[in-house]
What we know:
- This protein has helices spanning 12-21, 75-83, 104-113, 115-141, 144-153, 164-171, 175-187; strands at residues 23-27, 32-34, 42-48, 51-56, 62-68, 90-93, 97-103, 159-161, 191-194, 197-200.
- By secondary structure, it is α+β, with helices and mostly antiparallel strands.
- Strand 4 (51-56) and strand 5 (62-68) form a beta hairpin.
- The termini are far apart.
Amino acid sequence: MNRFPFYKDLSKGAKKLIEENSMEVSMPAGMELFAQGEQCRDILFLVDGFVRVYRHHISGQEITLYYLEPFEQCNINLNSAFANSPAAGTAVSDSEISGYMFSAPIIKSLYTSEPAYQQYIFELFSRRLEGMAGLVEDVRFKKMDERLLDWLKLQNSKIIKITHDKLAAHLGTSREVISRSLKEFERRDILELRRGEVELKL
C-alpha cells in the first residue's frame, strides 16, 4: 500500500487502520470483480495488472468505459460501495492482477478523516470524468472506422492480438461493423489481418 501516492501523507492512525484491515488478493486474467447492477461491498486497490470496466446493454452489446491501471481505483467500485447503489458497469481482470481489498466501511472512514486520500479520490474522479467526456464525444462525433483506427493506434504496438468480437465489445458495436471496417483498412494497405491479430502498417 505504501506505493500509492497518498500513502506517505496519511496519519499514523490511518496507516495502522490500513495495515490491520488489508486483504492481499491476486486473480488470473478473465475474472469478474463485480457485475453491473450488483452492489459493491469491497473496494480494490490495484497494484499490478489491468482491469477492463465496461457497460453492457440489453441487446448484448458492450462498450468499454475505461481501463483501471496500477495504483488507481475504480470509480464505479467506489461509487457503488460508498453510496450503497448498484454498480453502473462490470469489471473484469484484463491480465493477471494483484492488489489489496478492503471492506467499504474501512475506506469510508479513511476518506472522511484523511485529506490526502480525499485529494487522491478527487483527482481520480476528475481524470475519469475527462475520459468519459472524451468517450461521449467520440461516440457522438466520430465515425466508427475513425474510432477503430484511433483505438488500434493507441495500443502502441504494430501487432495487436485481439479478435473482431473483442474489438466490437470495446467500441460498442457489432462484429460485422468491425470486420467490414478492418477489411477496408486492409484493402487500403493500412493494416494486415491475421487470425486473432491485426498488424498495423502505419
